[in-house]
Structures are given as C-alpha cells and as structure tokens.
Specification:
- The protein is α/β, with parallel strands linked by helices.
- The protein folds into four domains: about 170 residues, GAF domain (Beta-Lactamase), CATH 3.30.450.40; about 160 residues, Rossmann fold; about 80 residues, Helicase, Ruva Protein, domain 3, CATH 1.10.8.60; about 60 residues, Homeodomain-like (Arc Repressor Mutant, subunit A, Orthogonal Bundle), CATH 1.10.10.60.
- The protein has 19 helices and 17 strands.
- Helix 1 runs parallel beside helix 4, helix 2 runs antiparallel to helix 4 and helix 17 packs across helix 18.
- It starts with a helix and ends with a helix.
C-alpha cells in the first residue's frame, strides 16, 4: 500500500469532518473507505457501552448484527482488542471464538471467519469502541500494514468525535447513562434499549423526546406486545424527573379489592390482613413518575379516586383521614379503545380526558418494516449467550419469513419465537454445534402468503336455515380471532376489517357478549 493510495482513501473522509451528515451515513462512508483501503469480507464499527459493544455500522455482515449487543466478557477477541493500545491481528489458527462466525452477509452454510484484525478507538484518551475487519480467507491480512490501520483508526476517532459533536451524542449518552443508573437503583430493573431504524420507530423516538421534556400526562396506546412499558421508561428517562423513581403498577394483575391499597396505601387495621402501615405507589413515586399499565381495567370507583389525586395531588391511605400531598407525573398505557369505553359507559369521560392529555400511539411491529431483523438480532444474541453457543444466526429464508409475517403478538411474540426456535433447533442437533442456524422451518411461522385468519372452518352443508348457519360461521371466525388477540376486541376488529362498534353490535346480536 502506497502513501498515495492511503491519502486518496482518507481525503474524502477528512472533507466529511466539516459536513453535517446523518450519523448512520457518516459511519457507512467510514466503513466503505476502510474496506477499499484494507480489503476484507466484513467490517464493523462498535461503540463501548458499559460492559457491551454496540454495533453502530456494519458492512458485509447480516442486518440483524446491528441489533446485537456483544457482552465483552463473553467474547475473548473483543477483550484482546480493547486491551491493546493499537491494531491487533489474530493468528489464523487462533482458538479464540470469533463473534462474527456465521454472520457474514450473503453467504450460505456455517462459514467461519479465518482472518481477523481490529483496532481500538480512543476519544480524549478514553476507550470509545472498536473497528473490526474479518475475512474468510486465512491469509487475507498477511501483507496488511498495521500502521495503515492505525492511521485509519485515528481518522475514524476524529470522525466519531465530529459526529458526536454535531449530533450532541456525547451529552445525550452521558445523560442517558446517568438516568439508567438511577433507574436501576430505584427499581431494581435492567435498562432496556429501544431498538429500530425505521421511519415509524424514529418518529416515535422523536415524540418521546418531545413529551419527555414536559410534565404532561401521557396515555400510551397500542396492541398487546408492542412495548408500551418500554416507551414509558423512555419518557421517564427523558424527563426532568429521571433522577427520581419510576414506579409501575399493572392494574390488570390485581383484584379490584387490592388496587386501592396498592395505589394509595393503607394504615394498620384498614382491612383484614393489614397488619402494618404501608405506603402506596403514589407516595413511592413522589417527585418521580407513576406508570399505570392496563389502565383500562380500572373500575369506575377507582377512576373517581384517581381523578381526585391527579387534580389536587392529595390522597388518603385506606383507613386514614390524614391527607398526604404528592407530586407525581402519570403515564398510563392500555390496549383498549378508551374512547369507545367512555361511549359505552364503562369508563369515566373526565378521567379519560385527564389521562389523554398527550396520547401516544406505539406502532405495531408489522408497521416497522425491517426493524424486525434488528430486534431479532437482539434476541438472538441474548439466547446465544444464555445457551452458551459460539454463534446463533438466521438463514436468508428465515430473515425473509420474519419480514413477511404479520406479527399479531408484536415484539413479545418475536422474543418468544426466537427463544423457542433456538431451543428446539438445538435439541434437534445430534452434537452441540459451534454455529447454530435457524431456518424458516425452525421458526415454524404460519404461511405468510395466507390471510391472517389462518384456520377458517369448513363451509357446512346447509340443510336448514341459512341465516342460522351464517351466524354460526360468524361466531366461529370471531371466536378464533379473539383467541389470537387474547380477547382484545379492538385488535380483533382491526384484523377482521370492522369498526370496533360494529363488531360489538355483531357480537351482541350473536350472543357473544
């Protein structure tokens, strides 16, 4: 490699440093330039985030790689690269497992990486991440000048620094890290990342930032399994209350007799079994955020008491006349059509309007395009780690099946599908494989070309009343659809292409309500 060729490759990147480019485009150009300078089959830029490496851009690796989170302690090659002050090339016969085995894009079979090199990136003398290069030919990097990679890494660090300055990523990353630590300490839960690159997902993220900076009450709506609780966590993290606790309550998980105690607390002797005084969720969330999931399940009586607290900030524990003042931001979530519930008299109009100051709709997974592959990559890496595999990957037909499927159960269904399929595929192996590939057959998804109502009953031979036979058929179709949507009438109406109110009237006429 001549100095001239090195300069020719680097000059466009130098020019990019002063330009405002989207983060993804800037990193894509960086990897393309590196592959032109140092020929390889795959390249990646990864950011160090706590104990894990997060892929920001990949070139030559499968799309789901961007959704993976590589825990450094589980990948010895990454540990070696991060501990080195400069570039490292691994011996072609190195016994250290390669994180990218089976992930090289466009190739079939269990192909393993045979030549691997990488370089740590430092910003302000602190380790920021890695550049990695991989090849299937074991002698590809024998004549590569490591100084050229070091020079490129220095420019890559400058590119990253420019991107962070322009997009203010450094400030956001530090802020989110602090908020995540506070949330983990307050709730004992692990931070869950919102993963996606689709326009629909990005619009949701922008809306979360917008409303997060306010103190408005938010009503999160969406189908079962879309991640409404994750959205609530993100809103809290983006708020001025992020240093205070986020307290959650699933309103559907408790019998009605206990909901008031959970929300408002109780004093000793307030009811049978109340042996001690206890603070409720509102008091625990004082200064922070209270997240009420499945808020559509609250009774009219509890709605009235909640409305008083939201309006005045004052509450009374069960069995007590003493007033307690609280300062709480409320975020609620439901998969029900609360406006329809109000029209039917099952929900208080004043409470509904108090909840829906800022309504926020979470898109279904089928509306997010290829985000399904990124999310699949996240769940694949989780299961790879849990099952102790070297690599867990999707074949091309499996990826196509994931993109084509309608996902009535959304992200939760995808998570369960990946875990179940990986376990079954491993159980079918005679010997424990180093690389486990999941095919479309392993995923066992319904025929994606079939309509959403997969199992329609056979048309009966009508010998009697046609109207009765038709009504019986309608009952069967509606019942099957309700089962698929866990008896959620709004989701059932969407699948059947009916208005929710019309479906309700039809179900009532058919004796199903």
């Amino acid at each position: 490699m001549t100095a001239k060729s090195l300069l020719t490759t680097l000059l466009p990147l130098v020019a990019d440093l002063s330009r405002e480019l989207p983060e993804g485009e800037r990193y894509r150009r960086l990897l393309q330039a590196m592959r032109a300078l140092l020929p390889c089959d795959a390249a990646a830029l990864l950011r160090l985030d706590g104990e894990s490496l997060v892929p920001l851009a990949v070139d030559g690796l499968s799309a789901d790689t961007l959704g993976r989170r590589f825990k450094v302690s589980e990948h010895p090659r990454f540990e070696v690269l991060l501990s080195s002050p400069g570039p490292t090339r691994f011996d072609s016969d190195s016994e250290l497992p390669d994180p990218y085995d089976g992930l090289v894009d466009g190739l079939h079979g269990h192909l393993e990486v045979h030549d691997c090199m990488g370089c740590p990136l430092f910003i302000d003398d602190q380790p920021w991440g890695l550049l990695t290069l991989d090849a299937l030919d074991m002698s590809r990097f024998e004549r590569v000048d490591l100084d050229a990679l070091q020079a490129f890494a220095s420019l890559a660090a400058a590119t990253v620094s420019a991107a962070e300055r322009i997009e203010r990523l450094a400030l956001r990353a530090e802020d989110e890290h602090q908020r995540a630590e506070i949330y983990r300490q307050a709730s004992g839960q692990q931070h869950k990342e919102m993963i996606g690159q689709s326009k629909t997902h990005k619009r949701l993220v922008e809306e979360i930032k917008l409303v997060g900076g306010s103190d408005l009450t938010v009503l999160i709506t969406g189908e079962t399994g879309v991640g409404k609780e994750l959205v609530a966590q993100a809103i809290h993290a983006a708020s001025s209350r992020s240093e205070k606790p986020l307290i959650s309550l699933n309103c559907a998980a408790l019998p009605e007799t206990l909901v008031e105690s959970e929300l408002f607390g109780h004093v000793r002797g307030a009811f049978t079994g109340a042996l001690n005084e206890r603070r409720g969720k509102f008091e625990l969330a004082n200064g922070g955020t209270l997240f009420l999931d499945e808020v559509g399940e609250l009774s009219l009586a509890v709605q009235a008491k909640l409305l008083r607290v939201l309006q005045s900030g004052q509450l009374q524990r069960l069995g007590s006349d003493k007033e307690h003042q609280v300062d709480v931001r409320l975020i609620a979530a439901t998969n029900r059509d609360l406006a329809e519930e109000v029209r039917n008299g099952r929900y208080r109009a004043d409470f509904y309007h108090r909840l829906s100051v800022y309504p926020l709709q979470v898109p279904a997974l089928r509306e997010r395009g290829r985000d399904v592959l990124l999310l699949a990559g996240f769940f694949l890496e989780q299961n790879r780690s849990r099952m102790g595999l070297g690599s867990l990957r999707l074949t091309s037909d499996a990826q196509a099946a994931l993109v084509a499927y309608a996902w009535p159960g959304n992200v939760r269904e995808l998570e369960h599908l990946i875990g179940r399929s990986a376990l079954k595929a491993l159980g079918n192996c005679r010997e424990r494989p180093k690389i486990l590939s999941l095919s479309a057959a392993d995923l066992d998804l319904p025929n994606v070309s079939a309509p959403l109502i997969e199992e329609q009953p056979e048309v009966p031979h009508v010998t009697g009343d046609l109207r009765l036979a038709t009504e019986n058929y309608q009952r069967q179709v509606i019942s099957a659809c309700l089962e698929r949507h866990q008896h959620n009438w709004a989701s059932t109406a969407r699948e059947l292409g009916l208005d929710r109110a019309n479906l309700g009237r039809m179900a009532k006429r058919l004796g199903m309500k």
